Amino acid sequence: MNDKTKQTNAVAAPYPGDPMAIAARRDAPTGRASRLTDAMAFLRGFIAHPLEVASVVPSSVFLEARVVQAADLAQARCVVELGPGTGGTTRALLRALPPQARLLAIEVNPGFCGRLRRLIDDPRLVVHAGSAESLAEALRRRGLPPPDVVVSGIPFSTLPPDSAERIAEAIHANLAPGGRVVAYQWRPRVAGYLAPLLGPPRAAWEWRSLPPMRVFVWVKPAAASGTPNPSSPDAAAPSAMHGAPGPAALAHAKPWPNDRSPP
Ligand SMILES: C[S@@+](CC[C@H](N)C(=O)[O-])C[C@H]1O[C@@H](n2cnc3c(N)ncnc32)[C@H](O)[C@@H]1O
Questions:
Q1: For the domain 34-255, what is the CATH code?
Q2: Residues of the chain scoring pLDDT < 70
Q3: Cα(3) to centroid of ligand 1, in Å?
Q4: Which of 25, 132, 207, 255 is in the most buried spot, having the most CB atoms within 10 Å?
């Protein structure tokens, strides 16, 4: 690891750095990898760990844009990304993140972690090598507050169910009140794990991805009103139950149970 890399990924107190300097860097390219070299590294990762990576190509620019819009990052202070892969989504989140915010990226594949550390030069980013199940520990080790936003690229459909359940519980337990979860998947399995904890999501398809992807959004109740009961009458009206999701993010999204798009 060279000095620059060490500095970039050093464990730091929350929101360090000179905001002006960080703001200046936001407009500069955040990585030296091209989409092609990212795609090649991603494919190698898939060949080595097909069930963990669960896709042969990284997310499209269209999906990245939809995820960033759904994450509504303008006021975010601490954001967690689960499953950043080769970093396309990570770079897109960093471009939208306020200068003093932090992005904790938790990735189980050590090769992907090495690439993220080497190629994304942004002091707001902390890369944690390990499973998303260890979200609480990763936040605690960096002294980070409960995240305002959790973005998940985790392939819930191909994970062992007990691991998927632990990840869903970790997301719910660590998310700040009023915080938001954005998860993208082709299959709706992630909603099966998170809906019992956070209520029915809003969902929208991104058709310009291969394969097309669903983007699910939940907003945790701001008040500590306990776990929503999906069978209650309120559960049929997720936007009312979950406070006020950002208007732009959910403008075209539908309540998931009414989404009649293909599975
Ligand atoms: C479908 S890829 C998404 C990659 C990237 N975010 C994108 O959109 O191109 C899923 C990623 O989740 C990672 N992953 C799978 N299981 C994980 C776990 N339990 N904890 C953390 N990351 C995991 C994989 O290694 C892979 O990088």
A1: 3.40.50.150
A2: 1-33, 224-263
A3: 27
A4: 132
